[in-house]
Design a protein that fits this description.
Blueprint (H helix, E strand, L loop, with lengths): L1 E6 L4 H11 L5 E8 L3 H10 L5 E3 H4 L1 H8 L6 E4 L7 H9 L3 E4 L2 H17 L4 E3 L2 H9 L8 E8 L9 H4 L4 H4 L9 H9 L1 H14 L6 E5 L5 E7 L4 E5 L5 H9 L31 H11 L3 H17 L7 H11 L8 H21 L1
Parallel strand pairs: 1-2, 1-4, 2-3, 4-5, 5-6, 7-8
Antiparallel strand pairs: 7-9, 9-10
Length: 365
């Protein structure tokens, strides 16, 4: 039996993770839960799963979360907290020899250059929960790195596929939250609408799979059935398909390398006979270009990109800036940053500094 800690248990991924764990009571035991502020749901989850350790971040602090991520009784730590706050407990869990099931893409976006060498040094496994990275991970089983030509990350296109920049200037928060295929938290839904989620996922894929940024691309796939693809050097392209349901990649991350029956509706190709693909409109949706630029510059610049985007996306959710100003705030914050080598100390300082810069820019709008 594997013993599991879930960081971010009251969020969208966290609640679905607990749903998956409940389907395999003979294989998993939940030994720790952490949430940011939803004390009522956290208490309910702790009671339901008879969890001996629970932490409320806003009450108990980051040290308590790090302590939970490193408890001796845990084998697997699911990192499903929103944003870069998942970095410190992830690093601590790796150093403690825990298996990491990672949903917080910001951890690798901000600190992939630090995290992945640590994973190798401590000989632990890190399995991705993001549907796109899970798809690539599944497609790569049995293939050597030198056999990879490129990784193709699919994007639904969000609610504004086909819109022009002039259309996007008048977008409301409610419109941006109306995702056509996925049901996610507010910030990540905004990232999907701006396509910043694809930029972040491309950076994450670079670190997860040891490829260059030039080997990672994105394509619009409105049906969200093909979750991503791998092109091999002989020209073959492999894809992983299924309904847009996060519980499947969560189960794979937890059960890997096993594949066990579950209660999810299986995908049938005749139910989706018209799968289509389109190029990304980079002129209208500038976020992927900003992500590529952050990686090109390197150092702490991806951390700056991520921090500025978190602040700008949340400001849009509060109706403090317009939709198009999200990318503008990110670009201006990056322009104000002088990159450094990505040590943990520098990343923490960069994250705070980039947030301050972004907030100042937001206030000046």
């Amino acid at each position: 039996m594997k013993r599991v800690v879930v960081l971010g248990s009251t969020g969208s991924i966290g609640t679905q993770t607990l749903d998956v764990l409940s389907q395999y009571p003979d294989l998993f035991r939940v030994v720790g839960l952490a949430a940011r502020s939803n004390s009522a749901l956290l208490a309910e989850q702790a009671h339901r799963f008879s969890v001996p350790n629970s932490v409320l971040m806003d009450r108990d602090g980051m040290d308590a979360v790090v302590g939970l991520a490193t408890i001796p009784s845990a084998d697997i730590v699911v990192v499903a907290v929103a944003g870069v706050i998942g970095l410190m407990p992830t690093l601590a869990a790796i150093e403690a020899g825990k298996h990491i099931a990672l949903a917080s893409k910001e951890v690798l976006v901000a600190a992939g250059e630090v995290v992945m060498p640590l994973v190798r040094a401590h000989n632990v496994s890190l399995t991705p929960i993001d549907s796109e990275h899970s798809a690539i991970f599944q497609c790569l089983q049995g293939y050597r790195p030198d056999q990879i030509d490129s990784l193709i990350i699919t994007a639904s296109g969000g609610p504004f596929r086909g819109r022009t920049r002039s259309d996007l200037a008048r977008i409301t928060v409610d419109e941006a939250l109306a995702h056509p295929t996925w049901r996610m938290g507010g910030k990540i839904t905004i990232d999907s609408a701006t396509l910043m989620n694809k930029g972040l996922e491309m950076i994450e894929a670079k670190w997860l799979f040891g490829v260059s940024m030039d080997q990672v691309d994105a394509v619009i796939h409105p049906q969200s059935v093909v979750h991503s693809m791998v092109k091999l050097r002989d020209g073959s392209v492999l894809g992983q398909m299924g309904w847009p349901d996060m519980r499947l990649p969560i189960a794979y991350a937890l059960l890997y390398p096993e594949r066990l029956p579950n209660q999810l509706r299986p995908w049938n190709p005749v139910d989706t006979p018209n799968l289509t693909f389109e190029p990304v409109d980079h002129e209208t949706f500038r976020s992927i270009g900003l992500a590529r630029e952050a990686v090109r510059i390197g150092g702490t610049m991806p951390c700056t990109l991520n921090a500025a985007n978190e602040e700008a996306a949340n400001a849009f959710l509060r109706s403090e800036i317009s939709f198009l100003q999200i990318a503008e705030i990110v670009e201006q914050t990056m322009a104000a940053h002088t990159p450094e080598a990505p040590s943990l100390e520098n990343l923490v300082r960069t994250d705070a500094s980039a947030r301050d810069t972004a907030r100042s820019l937001i206030l000046s709008v």
